[in-house]
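assembly run, all chains below
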Amino acid sequence: MSLHVMYYGMLAEITGLAEEVWVADAQLTVGGFRNQILEKYPAMREKKFKIAVNQKISEDFAPIDTQSEIALLPPFAGG
Amino acid sequence: MEKIHKPKKVFVQGPISPDFVSKSIASHQSKTNIGAHAIFLGQIRADKKETGVVSGIEYTAYEEMAEQAFHEIREAAFAKFELSCMHIYHSLGIVPTGEISLFVFVSSPHRRAAFEASEYIVEEIKANVPIFGKELVGEGGEFVWKENT
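ok done. output:
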């Protein structure tokens, strides 16, 4: 399946990208996706981030459906 | 039946001007059920960093998710407090030191609800809205990523 992945803040600096298409096997969980991300971008191991699937912050056990929009969110700084 | 509040646009490009704040106050003078307004203004601090002093913050956001989060905060605040009116504005892009990047404006018949709601809304924004801030330091284009605590 292919996923639309978006990077924000300091994470976009690490990837050098604002977004990319991520090709993955079916039956991917958020935790599995996190492992793939850390493998491709080892510098992210140093960073805190949350993963939003279709605009909801998701736990590692949550499944990811095909055509999901995934965002990697560094610590918030609003206000 | 609960009143449904339409989602409102929160983000503005650049700083929020004192003139905009004063016009917002003026536009509520016809609403005579209001007895108390509480206003919170977030202003950019000239923090000292290792390489210099902060000259401004550049804000970015996951805008669609952020607008939805703002909407949920508004709905929760209306459910929790006796409010007549509520407005939230947040900057995107560069806001120089000393200027305003957050304007929370709540109105109620009574002071207690206005005080409590404004604090609640500001804390919820800091914790739950995907907004990111780059603190710009000195003249050389250096920066430090900001993190809410």
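The domain at 2-73 of chain A is CATH 3.10.20.30 (Ubiquitin-like (UB roll)).

The beta strands of chain A are 2-7, 19-23, 28-29, 50-53, 56-57, 63-64, 69-73.

not gonna interpret more than that til we talk
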